[in-house]
Design a protein that fits this description.
It is an enzyme of class 2 (transferase). It is found in: Cytoplasm. Keywords: ATP-binding, Cytoplasm, Kinase, Nucleotide biosynthesis, Nucleotide-binding, Transferase. GO terms for molecular function: AMP kinase activity; ATP binding. It comes from Prescottella equi ATCC 33707. The protein is α/β, with parallel strands linked by helices and 181 residues long. The protein has a single domain, classed as Rossmann fold (3-Layer(aba) Sandwich), CATH 3.40.50.300. Helices cover 55% and strands 13% of the residues. Strands 2-3-1-4-5 form a five-stranded parallel beta sheet, sandwiched between helices. It starts with a strand and ends with a helix.
Amino acid sequence: MRLVLLGPPGAGKGTQAAILSEKLGVPHISTGDLFRANIGQETPLGLEAKKYLDAGDLVPSEITNNMVKARVAEPDAANGFLLDGFPRTVDQAKALEGILEGLGAKLDGVLAFDVDDEVVVERMLARGRADDTEDVIRNRMRVYREETAPLLDYYAGQIVTVDAVGAVEEVNARALAALGK
């Protein structure tokens, strides 16, 4: 099963992806993990990405696309994967389509984790990270919505919305039910 996971920061995508990955037997592919792995292994893509990250800039889509392309072509992803943090834009979604076509595969669906802004703020403040102030959190949510809203239109018809409010187990049960599992 090849799935894209969407949802604002603090929606619980990473938590749910870890559980779904285990239950579905497919890898959880997070762009953050991909960046860290490529930088840690000093791959050409990692070294290129590091230049941007060190300067505080966004990593260009071409680099991210190539990291995702290499990762989804690995043997453990042959039967599927959960993409978390990619695509973020319609251009990246189109690139993903091309990547999958090259593998003779297609996306099976998009899980959109839906959560109220106030719940996100509450959850993220509870994590106790120094950089998680209410203003920073609200700005990240605004950026997410501006950046990702067009994806909701692009994937219309493929999106299954999951209510992400509640205990981890409840949300997971809803996600599995939404996938027909």
